[in-house]
């Protein structure tokens, strides 16, 4: 598996490198993505309903994957309820989440959410656990201290592309870490947890702008893109107001109005609008 080694001793997997090969469209021109979000594994693990909830979630994943044939599965944040997890083993829930995917030989990519960033659980640890599985395409391409972890992109090529390094991507999939929650194993002078800003960091925005421009120059075209992020942007209000459509945005719309990035955030994590 190809790796790009960068300064500061970090390892980044190149966008196309994976044991499953590059992502490609089907011969009929389709590329199907199945999205699972807010799975919240490990919630209230000490009560009977908590583990049962995880079992039920696995059943739902299995049922969906029995009827769908996704080219990529996206785990779009809050994979684990980190505030209910233990420092020693919180990431083991990843194995339970991805088992249905591994059994079917499916590949996936994740973003991380506020419940994945907690005092006893770090997004870095989740990424490390994911990377134990060759099916995972989750990556980290921005290493600023406030950037979060799941900031990266994946190119998707045509079905007849013989070599990803010789082809122009047909689609770019961007993944952003909206953070939130609390800083891993950090407390302030009074012993309180330290809140982690709940928005895509400016360093990530600049990285995306620079990287996208580099890709435009490299391929001499603007490549269509899709973006995935856990906490919705403020602009998503306009999308939500249009309601649920069975084709363009199917499903429930119960979190109304939605809670966008940065809403009510405080450094002490109270999320009550005070500083």
UniProtKB/TrEMBL annotation:
Domain Calcineurin-like phosphoesterase: 38-243
GO molecular-function term, one example from the UniProt record: hydrolase activity, acting on ester bonds
Entry GO CC: cytoplasm
InterPro entries linked: Calcineurin-like_PHP (IPR004843), Metallo-depent_PP-like (IPR029052)
Pfam families reported in the protein's UniProt record: Metallophos
Highest taxon listed in the record's lineage: Eukaryota
Gene3D superfamilies noted in UniProt: 3.60.21.10
The protein, known as: Putative calcineurin-like phosphoesterase protein
Taxonomic classification: Eukaryota, Fungi, Dikarya, Ascomycota, Pezizomycotina
């Amino acid at each position: 598996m190809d790796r790009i080694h960068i300064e500061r001793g970090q390892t980044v997997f190149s966008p196309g490198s994976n044991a499953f090969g590059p992502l490609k469209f089907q011969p009929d021109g389709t590329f199907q993505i199945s999205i699972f979000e807010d799975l919240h594994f490990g919630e209230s693990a000490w009560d009977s309903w908590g583990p049962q909830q995880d079992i039920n979630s696995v059943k739902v994943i299995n049922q969906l994957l029995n009827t769908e044939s996704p080219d990529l599965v996206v785990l779009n944040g809050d994979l684990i309820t980190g505030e209910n997890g233990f420092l020693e083993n919180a990431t083991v829930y990843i194995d339970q989440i991805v088992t249905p995917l591994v059994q079917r030989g499916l590949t996936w990519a994740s973003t991380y959410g506020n419940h994945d960033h907690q005092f006893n659980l770090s997004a870095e640890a989740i990424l490390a656990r994911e990377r134990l599985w060759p099916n995972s395409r989750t990556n980290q391409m921005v290493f600023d201290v406030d950037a979060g972890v799941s900031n990266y992109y994946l190119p998707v090529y045509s079905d007849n592309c013989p070599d990803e390094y010789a082809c122009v991507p047909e689609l770019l999939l961007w993944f952003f870490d909206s953070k939130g929650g609390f800083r891993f194993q950090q407390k302030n002078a009074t012993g309180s947890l330290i809140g982690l800003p709940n928005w895509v960091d400016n360093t990530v925005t600049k990285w995306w702008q620079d990287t996208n421009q580099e890709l435009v120059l490299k391929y001499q075209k603007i490549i269509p893109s899709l973006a995935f992020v856990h906490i919705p942007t403020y602009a998503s209000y306009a999308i939500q107001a249009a309601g649920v459509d069975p084709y363009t945005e199917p499903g429930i719309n119960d979190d109304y109005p939605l809670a966008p990035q940065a809403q009510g955030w405080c450094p002490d994590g109270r999320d009550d609008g005070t500083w």
